[in-house]
Amino acid sequence: MFALGPLSFAAPLALAGLLALPALWFLLRATPPAPRRAVFPPLRLLMGAPDDAETPQHAPWWLILFRLLIAALIIIALARPVWTPAAVETETRPSLLVLDNGWTAASAWDDMRREAERLIDQADRDGRVIAVTGTADSGNAPLPVRLGNADAARRQLETLSPQPWPADREATADRLRNARDAGQLDGPLAVTWLSDGLNSGDAARLAQTLSGLGRLRVIEPDSGRAALGLAPPEAAADGLTVEVRRAATDLPRTAGVTALGADGRAIARRDVTFEAGSGIASATLSLPLDLRNRIASLRLDGTSTAGSVHLLGDSWQRPRVGLIELTASEGQPLLSDLHYIQSALAPRAELIRGTLDDLLAAEPSVLVMTDDARSDDPRIADFIDNGGVLIRFAGPRLAARGDALLPVDLRQGGRLFGGALNWEEPQTLAPFPDTSPFAGLPVDRNATVDRQVLAQPGSATPDRVWARLDDGTPLVTAERRARGWIVLFHVTASPEWSDLPLTGLFPRMLQRLMGLAHSGSASSPANGAWVLDRALDAEGQLAPAPASARPIPAQAFETTTPGPVSPPGLYRLGPASAALNVIARDTRMVPLPRNLPGAEFAGLDGPRVSQFDAPLLAAALILLALDILIALALAGRLPVRLGGTAAAVLVAVAILPGAPMADAQDTDPDAYALEAALSLRFAYVRTGNAQTDGRSEAGLAGLGREITRRSAMEPDAPMGIDIETDPLLFFPMIYWPVSTDVQPLSPETAGKVSAYLQSGGLIVFDTQDADVAMLRTGAPHPGLVTLLESIDIPPLAQIPPDHVLTRTFYLLQDFPGRFSGSPVWVEANPDGASRDGTSGVIIGANDWASAWARNANGEAMVPVEGGDRQREMAYRFGVNIAMYALTGNYKADQVHVPEILERLGQ
């Protein structure tokens, strides 16, 4: 490579072509321009003849210089010039490229990959060998790290992708040291570490290994592309408190948290804001209990990583639990059995204390009965038969006499340990059996039992015993009764008979029992292990379990960290479910320290090497085209005036490709009408919000491309309209995003919209919030109510299964967008309208435009909850809408095809 300061040439021998420019000068001078031809009559010849009698013998000097410039541009472009900024040094050593590809790198992976491709291309131009490796285990045998050509490095880069678990930098350091000892990484190297910007505790060891191989350069993403993590939520009295974490930076940032149900429908949404320099932001999702128990996952908007999703298993359900008490108050509430039960269950359930009449009116899922409560009320048996769970605690009354609401028969008198007439020591708990819902909980050796009630021999079968003492006597027994459960603790709920209520094991046992209220059956796995049901992929979407996944023993589940054999996701243990997430309660996101051994830091947007070969070749081609026009003009085959005009147009096209285009409606109303009327276009209502309008335009543009690809329609680019001033009749369909604060329409505008609907137009109203506003307030969307009150809209109904919209092009029964599950509304009786049986409005909340939106590179602009499958279904619904807007109810007429064919046959 030949260098002139910061300017270098990858193919310097091509510059030798510049030596031919003087010879080209003389060659061009020796070539005169073609003579002009004049056609009779002689007067026309005399009028065009010059005043002097001189005839040019060579091309004009300015044309020669112009052509020499074209030749010089081509020669310099073939020399592949490269401009290297002062901050970027020219590298001659072999390269090693290390990429963080754990879940924290997913948000900036596209930029990291492009940077890696640029570094590989640079090594290819320089003729240097390069090696590529990642830091996260993929579950397969890692490929050897060895230096090779750029093609081998590109193939290695293609095998790397973000993984839904943290990177293992310590294992990467060991692998690199082994490669160095094996001679696969010889000599000093130029080492580049494309980092995720976070310190995982083993970053210093990896940096030390990398700096030992050569000069280390660490490139990390900026704060706008840094990873965000969703921590485990905290149960609050009126909902959930969510906490979003990041590496502390100096820049503020806002993120949205959405709570989703098992069907993917949004239940609630809140924004969280990071202050400058803060690494934690929190917010509370306030929801009634019934909606709260429907939450299956929490997701961060605008980022698609495994850490931006937090799955909720059975443990996060908050059932309504009734604590039966005899009177409204007790003399010593802090010493009562109910006090210990309430303290244990308060973080995980909605507790109600009162008489049985009060509790049954509140429709609880679980009833808790202490020894003092009456059990002869037949309504308790009915509650169990209908699927309720009854949890009982023993005491002196049960020791004296049992009743019918017991899982086992009891022996009278109870059993006493450590008494004056009993020399047995207080008993501790035995490990829980694998068939118990308590399987996997560590036994607290401080939980000793002084007294208990005993089961009659033969009644406590193994399937009914969920916990035992060390001597084998049952401590917790249970029985399935009709659709419900009866669970009996053979001790009191207070410390009177045992120390169990004073330990941390007591609330965890009760929490496991709350799962009976959700699943309806006890956990009874065959081998006491949690089995992966659905895994989280690197983009935060639920996917089938990978082949590398292995069952997790129940006793190890709570201490398991995500990895190839234990991916994050939803696990099953019998009918119970639990979630393994990449962000635990003690996970901290700390930026990389700046004192890593031998490391120099840079950003992904730092100084870059610039290449000029492609721009120079493009300029040469444009000048060649201009030279052809000049030659034609000088030869008389193109009028000079026309040639000058063409040249000017060519230069304008070359120089001003990015000049902004003014909207037609901003300059000339007639031009706007012509542009809208002479081609098929869809329109969107401009709201004044740049982000919303941009998504609407990109969504309709993306839908138009899909319609062109899939059907005979070829819609042009969509147009934005001002609903107050612009005419509507040119557009077959108008997409109208509706915000909660939309202003009422003026009478003139309302009349214009009503006339558009009556004349056959179609308006798609989209609140884009998955009905969150309605769920939060219990009333219809306020912005939608404001608009529809101004417009003459007939009664509405949800799309029936046989509606024409379900079969205009694709056969559909779901109509998802960015969200799914929200109902879609159309006119209840379109046959009575003047539109020949078609509805003039489609109303939904699934944010269809965001699902349709793609950027100029064809990449999806907004993540979709259900992944690529849901995005495809959103496109199909969009195609159906477009067909419906253009063809009306022609599909409905197909029901008459058999009769028509029969008549034709007759």
TrEMBL record:
Residues 7-81 form the Aerotolerance regulator N-terminal domain. The chain crosses the membrane at residues 6-28, 61-83, 616-635, 642-662. Residues 681-886 form the DUF4159 domain. InterPro entries: Aerotolerance_reg_N, Class_I_gatase-like, Double_TM_dom, DUF4159. Keywords: Membrane, Transmembrane, Transmembrane helix. SUPFAM superfamilies: Class I glutamine amidotransferase-like. It holds the Pfam family BatA. The keyword Membrane applies. Gene3D superfamilies: Domain of unknown function DUF4159 (3.40.50.12140). This is LytTR family transcriptional regulator. It comes from Maricaulis virginensis.
